[in-house]
Predict the structure of Fungal-type protein kinase domain-containing protein.
Amino acid sequence: MSDPDAKKKTEEVEKDSWAGSFALPETQDDWKMLEKLGKLKNSTLHSIKKMASGSKVLQVPRGKYYASDEAIVNAALLLFLQAVTGLSGNHDVKWTIERVSFKLDFTNARFTTITDGAMVTKNSGKTRGLCEVKRKQLGHTDQSAATVSKQETAELVGLIKNNGSTVFLNGHHHLTSQYANEIYLLFAKAQVSYHEYLKKGAIGNDDFLVIQRCGPWRVNDPACMEQLAVIILAIVLLADKARFVS
């Protein structure tokens, strides 16, 4: 037989409980929305008797994603690449968070590029792919998108001049990038004459570097990440047997 007084007491506790979830409000409007959803008006932490959903975290929509520090994105990307690569055993290549630097000298100028990681061979440490990250999304401003594209191009030029021609990925050099929550794959292919252009400055009709950008794959979308994992693993398997001719 149930106790009416006990049932009434339970109902009073539940009525006085916070019915919402923990949240991360950004603006005053977000706070007001949370106050309404959680029935928190005129309440304090000391007046709440039970938090019904304390294990959940509600992310208030913030529009575009961004990280507080670029190092967070850098670590997230490299850990993902390393985890995916480890799914199929040992390989001749590995992903490293160590920065790779290319110093390029031309007739009248020079420049240096520094990446945010790379795919390298285990035995010789030769670079087979690049990584680049930013804490904000690629297109958060038109100016930033253009600046990032220039940086990516400079890094790929450094990789091409360092590695020479390749049969890897049908003659493509690649760069994996992550900007906030979005991952892209870049594939760069240069004609033979472009290599001569980099070495001697000779200009021909086909002296262009063609770069294809694929993506984005969003890290907060499981289906996206599953698809990307398959592609990354395929690249790693191909890199195991790739030939690079300087």
Observations:
- The chain has two domains: 4-58, 70-245.
- The longest strand covers residues 209-218.
